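[Meeting: bench + compute handoff]

Bench side (C.D.) handed over the final construct sequence. Compute side (W.E.) agreed to return the predicted structure before the next meeting so the bench team could plan truncations. Sequence as handed over:
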Amino acid sequence: MLELIPTLDDWASQYPEVAVATVVRTWGSTPRPPGARLAIAPDGRMAGSVSGGCLEAEVVEQGLRTLSGEAPRVLHYGIADELGWTVGLACGGEVDIFVERLRWDPEDPLVAEVKEAARSGADAVLCTWIAGPEVGRRVLLVGGRLVGVGGPAEQAALAAAASPHLRSGRARVEVVLGTEVLLEPLGTAPEMVIMGAVDTGSSLCRLAQEVGYRVLVVDPRERFLTRERFPSADELIQEWPQAALAHLRLGPRDAAVCLTHDPKFDDPTLLALLRSGVGYIGAIGSRQTQEARRQRLIELGADPQSLPRVHGPVGLDLGGATPAEQALAILAEAVAVRYGRSGLPLQAG
């Protein structure tokens, strides 16, 4: 939804109602994930995508039918359907696409809240009923608060169903109170905060951006924290890490990695991170270093029950030794934690 907001705003004055197609489920290899959207204006203009191009023409036709009064519905496409290769997925997968008529009024409270959540990066989940008597109904959860019509029981059920998806940031259909609802987190790009402008951090910065993180590098040392060393970083913050964390809002999709290997940097930083809602905390250092660090953190007031949140030695055991290989191991672990996966080889599953 986020990427379509500027287009919907632009179209609103001429076309307050448009058709929207949303990928709600996929099986196998598919070009676009759940949550991908295609907006269709009454004049046939398009924005967004629900496939690599093989489905768009058919989906546009179906979307325009909703503007003519047809009910919202879920369409299924795959290479085995009756339309065959004409509008099937050449990649061999299958996909469900929900088509509906959407009224986009910037003055509508729900639309205004969606736009504000997108702007602020709030923990918000857009909930759309894709089946049942209320098909097409939409509400927004913002910090557990329901925006739209609904009672306390529904709010609690939606919040419980949406909670696991705030960490992953992935859209998914869940059955809520007996009805299929598409739950779509609206958070902005997850952030990775790298504490320590070291060579491994430089490699980690580049790799993390490739998988969609917004990367911030924090170090009080001006000589190390330079654009020459971190040309692609989204933000360079020349502060002590614990000071920087005081004005950063890190949530369950975000990651923080301490790479300085220096207690005067790491200990207060890790203490602050343990008291935050950040989803992944990594700290460089050997097992012996980690044990000594745990004891210091307890002495500084850390809750012993929270210490397993610190992944140290940081990273998966890939066997690499270069800064780039170490960065890859760290990023792999951060991604596995974000999606709640083991990090084991797929063949082991």
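W.E. noted at the follow-up: The chain has a mean pLDDT of 88. C.D. will use this when planning the next construct.
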